Every structure is written in C-alpha cells, then in structure tokens.
C-alpha cells in the first residue's frame, strides 16, 4: 500500500448475493473452487452463503469455512436466533469468521414486509447483534433498504447496533435507487450524525437497477466508506451488484481521486471472472469493463496507430494488470511437453504429472485440427479435460448424417466404466438428435433449458465452448464442453451435465 493511502476492504458476495441471480446457482464444489480463487485474489471477506436457507447453503459455507484461511469467511443471517445459530454452526471451522445480520429499516419494508414499528425493529436489531456477538467477535449489521430509510431512524439504529457490538455497519442500496451524489451524502451524514461511528467500519452494498452500483460505491468511498461489498462480473439479485473488478480497478487507476488502495492482486481478476462465468453460465458481454473480451482490443486504425506508438494514448490500464492475456499465439502442434507445461504454469494452472499428460494429449489432438493454440484455448482444454466431474459416462465418438432434404440422424458411441454403447437417433436438428441418442443410451432423460455457444478465440478453426443448462427430474445443472467441432462440444457438454447428476451406473443402460 502506498504511504498516505487508506485501505478499502473488499467484501465479496459472489457466493451469496451473486448466487441469488436467477439461474446462477452453483454446487458446493464449484463454490469452493471460486472461494479458493477469491482467496488468491486477495479478497478480505468472502460471504459464502446464507446458511439457514437450505442444507446446500449450510454445507457450502461450512466447506468454505473449513478450507479458506486467507480471507475472513462470512455467513448471512436474518435478525433471528435460528439464523444466527445456523451461521455460527456453519462457520465453526473458520480461521476467521464473520456473522452478517440484517433487518429492514425503511418504512416500506417495515410496514408491508415485516409489519413492525420502528421501536420493534430497533429492539430486534439490537438483540440480534448482541446474540451474534456472543457467538462471534466479528459482527456486521445491515439495515436493509438503508438508502430509502428515514435518516434519523437510520442514525439511531446504527448507534444502537454499534453499542450492541457490531464492528461493521453496512449501508445497502437494496433496490439500486440511490444516485451517486445522494448516496455519498448519506455516508457523509452517517459519519457526522452517528456519535459512535468511529468504532465501526462503514461498508456499502449497492445494487445496479439503474446501472449506478459502481458509481454509488465509489462516491461512498469518497465520503469515508472503507468496505465495499461487490461481486465478480457484477452478478447478483435482479440487475446485479457492484462489480468488484470495476471498483478495484477504478480505485487503483484513479488513486489520485480516491486516495485508497485495496489488497486485491489484480492480475488474477480475469481468471476469477472466467471461472464465475463458467460456473454460473452467465457469459461476460464483450464490452464489459475490465473483463470483457474487447476491453483491451483496439479496432479503429487511428487507435491502433496510437497504441503502436505509445500504449497510453488509448489505454488507461495495462492488460497484464488485470490478467488479460489477449490472444497472443503461444503454442502449435510442434510444441513439446515442456513448453506446454510452462505455458500452463504462466497461466497459473498447476497440474499433477498425470493430469498434465492427459491435458497434453488432448492439446495435441486439438493442435492437429487447429493451427494456432491461444491461451484461451489452453484454459478451455484444461477445464474440459481435467476439471470435468468424475466421469460415469464419456463420449467416444459421434457421426452425423444431415442435409437440406433429409432428417438429421446422429450416431453416438458412449463409454461407461465397463462397456461401450452405440445408438442412433433422429431429431429436430443435430443437437436434438444427439441428445436423444445419449438419453437412449443412458436411460436418463434430460430437458434442455438453455444452450449457448461462444468461440473461445477467433478464426474459422476456433474452439467452440458450449454451455448448457439441463434439467434431469427435479435437478438443474450447468455444464460445458469444448471442441473445434460444435456438435462434439454440444455432446460433451450434455455428457458432462449427465455426469453431474448420475451416480456411477446403477441402472442398466440402453443396449
Ligand atoms: O441488498 C441487500 O440489502 C442485501 C442485504 C442482505 C445486505 O443483500
Ligand atoms: Zn444485496
């Protein structure tokens, strides 16, 4: 940290508020992997979930608490004993833990949702904070919908919860209603009107309903907030939360304005962004600030000319400072094992010898079809080959027969642990036919809810990465598959989805 600069704590809520985004649910293993990535990124506090809400959430918080030692691990709780007990239980194994208690304080919420008076709310909040404090030394309190709450009541409740033991007070703009000047003023007013505010850290938590979450958070920092709650890629409830990468890079790039620093190791940013996108199934728009594919690409001739002469003509950040690797050519089919492994290492991917060998064989197969292998291809290969879930089923081959006037037919060969199966099926297009053939072999029927494909790099021979959401009975899963052949990528994604829900074969598959 530079001398004279204040520290802003980064509180990441990707695994809690981020996961509340419709369709973004992640399983325990995926959450833990993201938590490790956030820890490497240098996040101060990881909000890992809302333990009372479901067994899945409880187990995920427990697992993050057990494994993450470099960040404080936090669990959310309403101002109810049962919620606080669940949070405290889930956090037991944490090296450092926080209980985050919330209760709405706006007239709208108190009257219509909670049906309680100001006095009742004040008492509930104080009791909840005291109870949480007796379970855990680090307690955060959030007056939900603070930005629409009556200011005098807000000051009273903040003073009372700090007296009761809250060490952080968070001021949520729950519905993304505030504007930057107004929200900055709110933080300044809190600083000036809550007598014991110096005993707590002021935190901010902004939603993006008007596209102002980052601007509001930064305005609050200018007014003295020293914790920002945010999510990777800005995912979250409705329009999402403030995007972490934007907050962190704005504080870093414009430290002349904000005079603040974070502990974030920024070269990790793109990697974490990609991981979150992969597990939530939410693709990052190409023009997204900091992490979008076009964020550091220059198209106009005048810009390219400027960049070649002096990068700072059109670049205010260095791509390497956010881990943007670009599409520099790195490897080809003549590249050997050492170059392959060294490049993976450079990308922060550490594999065991056996995994490296497996990934290298796949790399060679891809390099036979695709002349130029870019960093993005390498990441996709490793994720597709190594990080796929334990395989009950794997794809051996597929063949397709289609044409303008003939019904598409796809023949699939799948392998279980013990046997190989072959089935043909026709359908409404090749992907449908392919999925029907897989269903016929495995006798597990999936319903495709969502399908998207993106090109990992550019060019006609690019690797295509297919992301799908499939429902098997009552369980929905997101899965991915990558290949230079998009039908093969589609089949792999479907088999990966299937492997996430089936236990090693119990049913006898179709002959
Ligand atoms: O948006 C909100 O108010 C919240 C609270 C639980 C902090 O997410
Ligand atoms: Zn929120």
Describe it.
The protein has 17 helices and 18 strands. It is α/β, with parallel strands linked by helices. It folds into three domains: 6-280, TIM Barrel; 330-385; 394-502, Double Stranded RNA Binding Domain. α3 runs parallel beside α5 (118-135) and α7 runs parallel beside α8. The radius of gyration is 25 Å and the shape is globular. It starts with 5 loop residues before the first strand and ends in a 10-residue tail after the last helix. Residues 504-508 have low confidence and may be disordered. 3-methyl-2-oxobutanoic acid binds next to β6 and β7.
Concise account of the structure shown:
With about 500 residues, the chain is α/β, with parallel strands linked by helices. The protein has helices at about 30-40, 55-65, 80-90, 105-115, 120-135, 150-165, 180-195, 215-220, 245-255, 255-260, 270-280, 300-310, 335-345, 355-370, 375-385, 430-440, 485-500; strands at about 5, 10, 45-50, 70-80, 95-105, 140-145, 170-175, 200-205, 225-230, 260, 330, 375, 395-405, 405-415, 420-425, 445-455, 465-470, 475-485.
Mean pLDDT: 91
Small-molecule binders here are:
3-methyl-2-oxobutanoic acid, zinc ion
CATH topology of the largest domain: TIM Barrel
Describe the global form: globular
User: What percent strand?
Assistant: 15-25%
- Distance from N terminus to C terminus (CA atoms, Å) equals 64 Å
CATH superfamily of the largest domain: Aldolase class I
Quaternary state, please?
single chain
Main beta-sheet strand count, sense and barrel state: 8 strands, parallel, barrel
């Amino acid at each position: 940290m530079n001398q004279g600069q204040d520290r802003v704590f980064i509180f990441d809520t990707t695994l809690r508020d981020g996961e509340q985004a419709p369709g973004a649910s992640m399983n325990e293993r995926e959450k833990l992997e993201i938590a490790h990535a956030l820890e490497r990124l240098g996040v101060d506090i990881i909000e890992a979930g809302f333990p009372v809400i479901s067994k899945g959430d409880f187990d995920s918080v427990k697992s993050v608490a057990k494994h993450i030692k470099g960040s404080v691990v936090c669990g959310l709780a309403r101002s109810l004993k049962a919620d606080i007990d669940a949070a405290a239980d889930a956090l037991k194994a944490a090296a450092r833990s926080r209980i985050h208690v919330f209760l709405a304080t706006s007239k709208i919420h108190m009257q219509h949702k909670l049906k309680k008076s100001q006095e009742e709310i004040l008492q509930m909040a104080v009791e909840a904070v005291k109870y949480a404090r007796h379970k855990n030394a680090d307690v955060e309190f959030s007056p939900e919908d603070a930005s629409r709450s009556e200011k005098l009541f807000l000051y009273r409740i903040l003073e009372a919860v700090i007296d009761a033991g809250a060490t952080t007070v968070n001021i949520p703009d729950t519905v993304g209603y505030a504007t930057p000047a107004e929200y900055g003023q709110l933080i300044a007013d809190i600083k000036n009107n809550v007598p014991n505010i110096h005993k707590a850290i002021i935190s901010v938590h902004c939603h993006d309903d008007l596209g102002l979450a980052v601007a509001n958070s930064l305005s609050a920092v200018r007014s003295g907030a020293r914790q920002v709650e945010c999510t990777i890629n800005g995912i979250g409830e409705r329009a999402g939360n403030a995007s972490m990468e934007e907050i962190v890079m704005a504080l870093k790039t414009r430290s002349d304005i904000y005079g603040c620093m974070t502990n974030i190791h920024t070269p990790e940013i793109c990697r974490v962004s990609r991981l979150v996108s992969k597990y939530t199934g939410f693709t990052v728009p190409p023009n997204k600030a900091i992490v979008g594919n076009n964020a550091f690409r220059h198209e106009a001739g005048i810009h390219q000319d400027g960049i070649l002469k002096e990068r700072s003509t059109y670049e205010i950040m260095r791509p390497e400072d956010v881990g943007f690797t670009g599409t520099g050519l790195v490897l080809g089919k003549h590249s050997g094992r050492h170059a392959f492994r060294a490049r993976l290492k450079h990308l922060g991917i550490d594999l065991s010898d056996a995994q490296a060998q497996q990934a290298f064989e796949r790399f060679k197969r891809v390099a036979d079809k695709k002349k130029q292998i870019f960093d993005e291809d390498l990441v996709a290969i490793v994720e597709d080959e190594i990080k796929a879930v334990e395989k009950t089923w794997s794809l051996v081959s597929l063949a397709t027969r289609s044409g303008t006037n003939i019904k598409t037919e796809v023949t699939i060969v799948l392998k279980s642990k013990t046997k190989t199966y072959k089935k043909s099926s026709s359908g409404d297009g090749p992907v449908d036919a392919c999925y029907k053939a897989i269903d016929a072999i495995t006798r597990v029927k999936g319903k495709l809810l969502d399908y998207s494909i993106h090109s990992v790099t550019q060019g006609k021979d690019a690797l295509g990465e297919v992301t799908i959401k499939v429902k098997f009975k009552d369980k929905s899963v997101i899965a991915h598959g990558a290949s230079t052949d998009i039908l093969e990528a589609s089949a792999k994604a479907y088999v990966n989805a299937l492997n996430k829900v089936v236990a090693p074969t119990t049913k006898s598959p179709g002959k």
